Amino acid sequence: MKKLKFIGNPLLQSREKINMSSDKKWLTLKTTEDNEEFVVEESVAIMSNVIKNMVEDGCASSVIPVPRVKGNAMGKIIEFCKKHTEESDEKVLKEFDAEFLNLGPDALYDLMVSANFLEIKVLLDSVTTKVADMIKGKSSEEIRNILKIENDLSAEEIEESRRENCWTRQE
Amino acid sequence: MSLPCEMLDEILIRLPVKDLLRARCVSKGWCSLIDSTPFVKRHLSANAGAGSLLIRGSAGIGNFYLASFNAAQDEATALEINDPLKTLLVGARIQGAANGLVCVSKNNINQLFLINPATNKSRMIPSAPQEFPRSFYYNESSVCGFGYDHINDDYKVVKIADCFIQFRGIMAIVYSLKTNSWKQIHNVPSNTRFTRDSGAFADGALYWLGINKPVDINDTCCKDFLVVFDLGLDQFKEILIPAMKGPVISFSTRCVDSDGRSLCIIDSYPDCHTDLWLMNNSGAEIPWSKLLSVENHRTQPFRFFRPVYFSRSGESVLLEVDNSKLVWYDLGKKAVKNFLIRGIPNKFSSHVYTESLVKLTEDKLLQKPSQDKPEIKQQKRRDDFLSKGFKLRL
Questions:
Q1: Of A91, A148, B28, B48, which sees the most CB atoms within 10 A?
Q2: ipTM
Q3: Do A149 and B31 touch (CB under 8 A)?
Q4: A149–B27: do the CB atoms touch at under 8 Å?
C-alpha cells in the first residue's frame, strides 16, 4: 500500500471523502526522488508558480510529479504554504516564519533550492532574508564557517581588500 | 555547501554595503560577483526603497553624518562620516543625490566631486572649460545640478551661469561621468533667470524654478514655470506649474525640491501657510497635485520646511523643519510625528541617498587631464564661440 500523507483534516480517512467535502479542490504531489505523495488543497499548492502554471494549463489531473525536491523538504514547504494561505495577520505570519526558519544552514539550503525550483516567491524571500540576516555583521571568516565555504583567496588578496575598506572594520 | 549563483545573488542583494565590502573577502567567487556591474545594479534597485540620509551640520565648517531610517521608526542614530571622505568634505556643500551617488561642491561650486557615502569613495570632476565664468561669491548667479541619465546609464552634472562680463546671456555646460568631459549646451532658455538653488533631480531630468525677466519695471517676476534639463537628450525645455495663489505678498517664496524620485514645489506664505505641490507621473491626468497645506500656527510655529523623502507607499513624507528637526507627516491622518536623529548638531540639512556599490573609478586607466593639450582645446572652443557671434575678451 502506498504511503499517503494527508495534509488536511486528520479525521478524514479516505480520499473519496476529501474529494466530496465542500468545493475545495485537492491535488496530489509526488516527489519523484523518494516517491512520497502529498495530498494538498489546490489553493495551497498554487502558491508554487510551477504548479499553478500546470493547473492552469490543464495538465494537473492526477498525480503531479515533483522532481528534485525530497520528501521531507516537500512536507515543510507544504506546511509553510498552508500557513500562509490560511493566515492573513502579518504579525502572526512573521512569528511563524521566525520559528519555521529556525534551521541549520544545510536545511535552509535545501529549502531555498526547492523554493526556487518550485517558484514560491514568499518562501524564497523569507529564506534568503534569513540567510542574509545570519551573515550580517559577521567577518568574512565567520561567514565562511557558517555557510561552509572554502577560502580560495590568498593572504595578500584578503589584506588588500581589507586595506581598501579598512574603515568598515568593526570595533 | 556551494550555493548556486542565483541563490547567492538573492542573499547578497539583501545585505547592506558595509557587509558586502567585508563579504568580498569570503571567496574569489563572492568577490567577483559583488564587484560585477550587474550585481551592483541589482543591489541598487533592491535597495532603492530603503532610506539613507546624508546630513550636514550647518554651523561653522559643518561635519557630515550618515543615518539610515524607515517610516516605522521614531528615531535613528547618525554616525559621523569616516576618512577619507571626512577630510575631503571639509567646507563642502551638498548639491544633489542620484542613483547611489552624491555630488558635493567646494569653493562656491568651482570644485565639484562625486562621492559614494556607502563605500567612502570619491572622484573629482575636472574643472569646467576656461570660458565658463568662475563664481566668486555665494550670491553670484551660477548654479549646478546633478542627476542620473537612465537612458544612457550615465551620471551628469550641469552648470549654468548668468553671464554679465564676458557676454550677456546664459551659458550652460554638462559633464558626463562616462566621457569624463564637459560639453556646452546650446538651446539655453534666453529670457529666464534661474533661482540660486541647485537643480532638483527627478525622473531623468533636472528642474529649476524659472523667472521671466520682467519686460518693464511694473511687471512682477512671474514664477509660473520650471526650466527642465532632460539628462537623456541634453536639452532644455520649460513646463508650466500652478500659479501661486494669493495673497502673494512680498515675502512669499517659492522653491522647487525633490528627494531624487519625486519633484515638488513649496510655496511659503509667511505667517499664513505653506503649500506643497507634488508632480504626478507623466501621463497622469492632472500634472500637479497639492500634497499638503500646513498652517503656520502660533502653537506649532515654524519658519519654513522642506521635504526630504516621500515614502514609497505615498502615505507619509519626511520633512525637515527650520533646518533643525525632522518630522514624519502622515498625509492621511494629517498628523505630525517627530523623527529624532541622535548624534547630529542642532542645525543641519539632510539629503536622502541610496546606499550602493556604484564605482567612481573607471575600469580602464583614467584619462589624463587635459593639461597636455590646452592650446588645441582652447582653439576649438574659441571657434565655437566665434561662430555664435560672441566676442571673447581674453
A1: B48
A2: 0.77
A3: no
A4: yes
